[in-house]
Design brief:
The protein is of the alpha/beta class and about 250 residues long. Helices cover about 45% and strands about 15% of the residues. A seven-stranded parallel β-sheet has the order 3-2-1-4-5-6-7, sandwiched between helices. The protein starts with 7 loop residues before the first strand and ends in a 6-residue tail after the last strand.
């Protein structure tokens, strides 16, 4: 039997690498999926690639309250409820020294990662019943710190605090809330981050350096993160809430 049969799932950042992999995995497991992303064109391409009658899309800025209410309402109007919310939308922000770090970058990244997860949870929870799940996509950056990664690392740490607070509030209603922390993933988002890191290591190959620091010796695949998201979204994790799940090839061990 499909693990997510007839479950209604919202995936923000749904047109990206990880969001798309999660959507495909969830559809394969019987879910109905609403993709949310900023770009309408990217969403159209993602829907076409998934080629399923059980996928829909709404372009939205997850940091905007009204737009968040609108995409949650779209899922409820189409399918009647929300069973799973995957808060996956993200932006990287620049990497640089604290003295010159742009204030607006801190605000922009925090707005997407933290405000976005807050708003998504705030508006989805009223439509969730017992057994529902919220997964906030954090990062190994939310488990430590690195010079120059001020906006991204701060936002990813803040997501953990947000998750733990919501999880304690809604546990009595049978709703689970957890964070998922991928390590370096083989996609364009990570490639851009590593390109930004190169000047900090004297112009060296940041990707090769990352691989040398990962015990499994490689970047992860988006499909592997989708598997972890499936665990947290489904009844397989029925007694797991307020927790962090790390999928990083041993990078932070």
């Amino acid at each position: 039997m499909a693990i997510l049969k007839d479950k209604v799932c919202i995936v923000t950042g749904g047109a990206g690498s990880i969001g798309g992999a999660i959507a495909r995995k969830f559809l394969d497991e019987g879910a109905k999926v609403l993709l949310v992303d900023l770009s309408e064109q990217a969403l159209e391409q993602a829907v076409a690639a998934l080629a399923s009658p059980h996928v829909a899309a709404v372009p939205a800025d997850v940091g905007d309250d009204e737009q968040t209410q609108a995409f949650v309402a779209a899922a409820v109007e189409r399918w009647g409820r929300v069973d799973v919310l995957i808060c996956n939308a993200g932006n990287a922000g620049p990497i640089g020294g604290i003295e010159d770090y742009p204030v607006e970058a801190m605000d922009d990244v925090y707005r997407v990662h933290v405000r976005g997860a807050f708003l998504g949870s705030k508006h989805a929870i009223p439509h969730m019943a017992e057994g529902s799940s919220i997964v906030i996509m954090s990062s190994v950056a939310g488990l430590g710190g690195s010079p120059g990664v001020y906006a991204y690392a701060t936002a990813k740490h803040a997501q953990v605090g947000l998750m733990r607070s919501i999880a304690k509030e809604v546990a009595k209603r049978g709703i689970r809330v957890n964070t998922l922390h991928p390590g370096p993933i083989d996609n364009s988002f990570q490639t851009e981050i590593e390109r930004s890191f190169s000047p900090l290591i004297g112009g060296g190959d940041a990707t090769a350096l990352m691989n040398s620091m990962i015990p499994m010796g490689r970047h992860g695949e988006a499909s592997e993160i989708a598997q972890a998201a499936l665990f947290l979204a489904s009844s397989m994790s029925s007694f797991t809430t307020g927790s962090v799940l790390v999928a990083d090839g041993g990078f932070t061990s």
